[in-house]
């Protein structure tokens, strides 16, 4: 039995481990959620630029070292593992992130369930590997399938620690794990491909990167199984939430499985390799944007799901950020996709450029779908995902069997775009309904970006295909012309966006400045003096996107502080009373509730000493008459003083609270006093 540590001695190892586990499963605070999300988005953006750059370098290097047929054999062999990873996770990681209580038991339950699923899926992949080889008409594909089966078990071991880090807004996953994984895979793949390992160099690189991910994730999460207990009832409860998520992931992975399978079956392993690399380049910008959003938005929406105002504003701002970056990226691919691939990878990979052009709408569609899905999951209404899943499957099957036989690789890319846009449009529509976002507010964001992107696309396409012909030039000249294409596109897009929607343009510039701005270093005096905790978190008076006034959110510190605090509650639709929670909190903490009727007005003014010299009047009943001891306004009651309100049209609702069309309602609370 281990006793308590003596003074000056370190705590026992078991105590340290328990403390780290408790910290890993702690409930994240939402007091400073906005700053946390901004920091998380900034970290994710910077890290994803690094990881996607590494992935792009690896793609370019391996494409110069391996043939399309070798890359196609690896794609065919690993296709089953990519599909079965959905079932090894079982949607339970998302259920763990969304969960509010019994977190320790939930973490242990998810760990053991996903581990068993991972082992079963590995066994299944190994057993059916001969069928994979027969389907693609080659023994190499079957051997790769058998060799990559154990990756499913390794991945299953990362679900709980990774989910707990995401739930707690722990960005070490983004800062450390993802770059390390990308560097490991890229370095191993390039080195072994240069040494002549061929397709097996990619298999070894896959295992090396997964092992690095596993070790770093467990080390950084600080969680170990055993603190909680496996609970069957808890498993069933989370499984009900996770079932629609499994179906959604099944649709996504099934679509990728169908695309790759039909391409390899009917076009051959060489075109399958082109499909893989064309798809990878096409999804680089979209994947970066979506990963930034999903890692931050899902836990954020889960925390603010019960606050309608914050959920609505968060949804609109997330939609603005993703749409304003994803759409121009997709439009640019249409303009320069094929010459970009030829210049970067070589003439033998021209087919990948067709896939790239066909998938131009994939990124914007996935961006819309990501916002909608995260809002749906965050509010706990995961069953609504079934509609998106069904739409995705139907559109995929129809588009593939219609476009692939006639257009080949271009048809495969177009089918992926059609599915993404159909499912994304439905997801954003459902997400808007869940978040309470009006259609006109969404169109105010979407339409100007769409018009600016299309005009820039047409102009850049004419410049490239009519004059430059970058894919027919020497490589250095081709790269220079492609850079000119990008600069022309960016200039036209940003300029038109500035004209069509100044508010969205300002939001974009503000996001860029926030990302690249370096924090100010504190001086010694500043560092020695801690900043006081803010009493009230007051957001912008006017939303920069919708132009509507916003609500002010009181912090927990304000609710507990005894000092007088003013809580501003601006009108959200031109007129509305103070929310029930604000009045209830004021009455519960500072005075007993009482009835009040009549026309209450408060036109009091403060002199230079902070006292009230005005004459607030009330024709109703109750002590809230605008007067207090020593000339102070009363600090409690339903008529709690409304200082500095200019005269204007107003009225009383049925509960006696003042409603102003011109000015926001102010609720002031302060230290309770006995007025006799």
TrEMBL record:
<feature type="transmembrane region" description="Helical">
    <location>
        <begin position="384"/>
        <end position="404"/>
    </location>
</feature>
<dbReference type="InterPro" id="IPR050833">
    <property type="entry name" value="Poly_Biosynth_Transport"/>
</dbReference>
<feature type="transmembrane region" description="Helical">
    <location>
        <begin position="322"/>
        <end position="345"/>
    </location>
</feature>
<feature type="transmembrane region" description="Helical">
    <location>
        <begin position="442"/>
        <end position="463"/>
    </location>
</feature>
<feature type="transmembrane region" description="Helical">
    <location>
        <begin position="351"/>
        <end position="372"/>
    </location>
</feature>
<keyword id="KW-1133">Transmembrane helix</keyword>
<feature type="transmembrane region" description="Helical">
    <location>
        <begin position="43"/>
        <end position="65"/>
    </location>
</feature>
<keyword id="KW-0812">Transmembrane</keyword>
<feature type="region of interest" description="Disordered">
    <location>
        <begin position="595"/>
        <end position="676"/>
    </location>
</feature>
<feature type="region of interest" description="Disordered">
    <location>
        <begin position="519"/>
        <end position="538"/>
    </location>
</feature>
<dbReference type="GO" id="GO:0005886">
    <property type="term" value="C:plasma membrane"/>
</dbReference>
<feature type="transmembrane region" description="Helical">
    <location>
        <begin position="181"/>
        <end position="208"/>
    </location>
</feature>
<feature type="transmembrane region" description="Helical">
    <location>
        <begin position="71"/>
        <end position="88"/>
    </location>
</feature>
<feature type="region of interest" description="Disordered">
    <location>
        <begin position="1"/>
        <end position="25"/>
    </location>
</feature>
<feature type="transmembrane region" description="Helical">
    <location>
        <begin position="109"/>
        <end position="128"/>
    </location>
</feature>
<keyword id="KW-1003">Cell membrane</keyword>
<feature type="compositionally biased region" description="Low complexity">
    <location>
        <begin position="525"/>
        <end position="536"/>
    </location>
</feature>
<feature type="transmembrane region" description="Helical">
    <location>
        <begin position="410"/>
        <end position="430"/>
    </location>
</feature>
<comment type="similarity">
    <text>Belongs to the polysaccharide synthase family.</text>
</comment>
<dbReference type="Pfam" id="PF13440">
    <property type="entry name" value="Polysacc_synt_3"/>
</dbReference>
<protein>
    <submittedName>
        <fullName>PST family polysaccharide transporter</fullName>
    </submittedName>
</protein>
<feature type="compositionally biased region" description="Gly residues">
    <location>
        <begin position="599"/>
        <end position="629"/>
    </location>
</feature>
<feature type="transmembrane region" description="Helical">
    <location>
        <begin position="281"/>
        <end position="301"/>
    </location>
</feature>
<feature type="transmembrane region" description="Helical">
    <location>
        <begin position="475"/>
        <end position="496"/>
    </location>
</feature>
<keyword id="KW-0472">Membrane</keyword>
